[in-house]
Amino acid sequence: MVDMSTSLSGVGFPNPVMTASGCAAAGRELGQFFDVSVLGAVVTKSIMVSPRAGRPTPRMAETPSGMLNSIGLQGPGIDAFLDQDLPWLVAAGARAVVSIAGGSVADYVALAQRLPAAAGVSMLEVNISCPNVESRGEVFACDPVAAGAVLAAVRDAADPEVPVFAKLSPDVTDIVAVARACVAAGADGLTLINTLLGMAIDPVTMRPVLAGQTGGLSGPAIRPVAVRAVWQVHRALPGVPLIGVGGIRTGWDALELVLAGASAVQVGTAIFGDPSAPVRVLDELTAAMAERGFAKFTDAVGFAHRSPR
Ligand code: RRO
Question: Of 3.90.1150.10, 1.10.10.10, 3.20.20.140, 3.20.20.70, which CATH number belongs to 6-54+73-197+218-305?
Fold first, then answer.
């Protein structure tokens, strides 16, 4: 028996396996496949202030060991989310990690103010891979100053009981610099990583496959990038809780991110082929911990950084 519980900035979770944002709306569509309360948490698609239709189709494309998406933040907006989706997650007994996205600092603040612990929010995950409409569309996550400004404002506006995590983009020269800026601004932890910007061109039509032309690359192809990002940030900021995400398909993949320094993991793209993948990953990760003699999940966090015996 392995104690699989984990704690992220003072909030306890029965196990470290979550869904990844954007891969199962607000979790309700997974309820037909498994009991969502079994997971550590369900992470919602990024919620915005207003409803959005997203980008035109096609907006997904298969790539070698991966997938491109350019969904463009499709979603119901915060009013419908609070009215329908969050109550469903709470009634299902799930722990809700709510991802928020915006085009300005004011958007993020407006969202954070409406998502207190009393409404059933276990944690906020601040998706800063969004264009800043007030700064020529520069992506917040690509600039430590802009990223820090969002996190400082969200930490200030959010319920003090709700941890605020920043989800970082790997499309930067120095992810540690962005991580440091977010933590200095008040982020309680970090989720690593969002998708990598990619593109596919159809050799038959000789045109971009995605209507949005470029898109976010996810799936097993990006797992080594996620492992590297978690490793670098854990080494630089060992006390900061990290959630690892990127290409996890099996319990062994999850274990790799944990050994690099993740205190929890998220399963995303694997859900499209196997909606029960997060539950299977949890079972496989639990077995992998037992096989390696870990009594507690948390004993494995960052284990790869220890010098060999
Ligand atoms: O909605 C999207 O197209 C999207 C978002 Br917000 C994101 O953070 N990452 C991604 O791959 N796609």
Answer: 3.20.20.70
* Tokens encoding 193: 């990583």
pLDDT the model gives residue 309: 66
SS3 125: strand
CA distances from 241 to 185, 261, 274, 296, 301 (A): 15, 8, 28, 17, 10
Q: What pLDDT sits at residue 307?
A: 85
Distances (CA, A) of 207 to 192, 210, 217: 32, 9, 18
242 pairs with which residues across the strands? Answer: 190
Mean pLDDT of 185-212: 98
**Pocket flag, ligand 1, residue 122 (CB < 6 Å):** no
Chain centre to alpha carbon of residue 9: 16
Query: How would DSSP label each residue in 295-308?
Result: SBGGGGTTGGGSPP
Active centre residues (catalytic): 130
Q: Give residue 44 CA to ligand 1 midpoint distance, Å.
A: 12
Collapsing DSSP states into helix, strand and coil, what is residue 127? Answer: strand
Residue 194 in contact with ligand 1 by CB distance below 6 A: yes
Q: Which atom of ligand 1 is nearest to the CA of 195?
A: 11
Q: Which atom of ligand 1 is nearest to the CA of 212?
A: 3
- Taking the domains of the chain in order of start, what are their residue ranges? 6-54+73-197+218-305
